[in-house]
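pinned: reference chain
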Amino acid sequence: MKLEEKRRMSHSGMLAHISLLFLMKFAFALSTDVIVPEGCGLILNCVDANNDMATFKWTFRSRASVSESQVGTKPAFEKQNIQISDEGEYECVTENKDIDNRRVRMSRAYNVSVDTKINIKAWGVITVTEGKVANLPCSPPLSATLTKKDVWARDTKERALEPLQPLTQDKNDDEPSHGVYWARPNEDLSINIFDTKMQDSGMYHCQFEGGKYMVELIVEAPPLPRCFGHTGAWEQCEDDKSRTAAAVMSESLTDFATKLYSHLRRAIPKENILYSPVSIAGVLSHLLLGARNETRTLMEDALCLPRGFSCSHKAMKVLREETQGSLDMASHIFYSAEQNLSEAFINQSMEFYEAAPTTLSDDVEKNLDMINSWVAQKTRNKIPKLLDSVDPLDQLILINAVYFVGKWKLKFDGNSRPASFTTLDGDMVTVPTLYGAKYKLSMQFFSSLNAQVAAFPLTGKNRLFILLPLTTSLKALQAVEERLTDTELTKMAKDMSKVTPLTAEVTLPKLKLDIETDMNRLIGDIGLGGLSTDPNLCGLFPEQADLPVALSDAHHRASLTLSEIGVEAAAATSLSFARSFPSFSAMQPFILVLWSDQANCPLFMGRVTRP
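pinned: its structure tokens
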């Protein structure tokens, strides 16, 4: 080795050694002063205490005896009941390895002093709302000699004690006016301050022979009215946002529809399902018009709407107008005369939902007949009865009804005959069918859904999609359902519009479904359980205070008919899909989606496991 290289290495090593010494001295200089009250506990932490690969060594240098001893090997040093003999320097050396696998040591030191002169005072704290009664307790030991003269005093701004002279409450006086009174004159020295004011806040002293008790009274201002700041009308939809509102609503409704299906398929794994996402969204959106603060946020999340989206109600109005002709959507308000509805809510209900308010009477049977008659009229008698009863305590009932009719653009043959439908259990059930020997429709297998999809064109820019699983088993049906997300559903509708129709033999079961969905459970499943407890509906009821209105019941009933004429549905829909090609036979469990190309979202969704 050359001499110059040895010199460089020696010089380099010396620099490293000097640098290391400097770092060690610097670490000792960063000691921390810690003052601990005598009798209390002490916890000190090493450097890099959370490193499982490091080792730790605690050393104690006593201030009294100038001795040094090892006191621990854990990342933290703990000691209870600290005394004067525990004063001194506690040092922890942490040893680890750096990225080059070299040993590294880091030190942390604490200079611990013990304070024997700390005077700790304790007092009770009583908090009341302005106007309420404040009870200030004082129960001296039984051995104390009690005299009620100059027992209570209060701190003044000048930090002096102002004596109090409590009065004895008149037995005939239920609640005296503002003042200080003995709470239990014959038992102890406790006092009551009636009709408390903000200026009553402060420190109170109860003094007796051999002791003293202090109470801090905090008088808080009464809370603001429940609906303070939440009673204004729904904000205006800005012009720049209104242009995109329809697209946002289409995406939200599709997301909402598949979310509902996901919850329903888990709750009802094998039975028929039929519901209308636009009807459920319609009544919840109408309620959203009056929701404020946290309730509005919860409802927007449940409806899959962007938070703070001001154009949701205008977008619902546009959807209702654009789908007229094939889908009739109507809303209505039934409310108790005892409840004062917000004028802004009534006006905006008319503007966005064409929902007029009707007052409920004292006759519950009359109310029941009035509501069911309205629903029957709006659904062309497809749903003649929605409610079984009306609770006399009901303050508000919001109703949304939808009626859909779409005729086949290509009719089925008139000689339709019965055929066998295979259920999930493998049973063969004979049912009437719709048959087309040479029916023109679009069909395609979607590997992303694991299903054969057929699209049946209907009048009014609508299509009936039928998703047919690969087999008749429950596992095959669930495989399709698990993949049926809002993204897949939208993509399927878009891709099917590009598929060239072809002629095939088609067999569909005739359907006449009438299904009631457990809406109370579904409301909770989608995150709206708070509507049943303490919702903020101040946009509806600006004067609700001690007894806010909460959701007491919810119903959803769906009717669907699949016949030679077409699809007719009220409040919900059911769709059929086939699997074989070039023929299409939906004589097994399938999923239905009634899609509106005008609104670009599903109007009805369902599942058929037994026609």
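why pinned: The mean pLDDT is 85. The domain at 232-611 is CATH 3.30.497.10 (Antithrombin; Chain I, domain 2).
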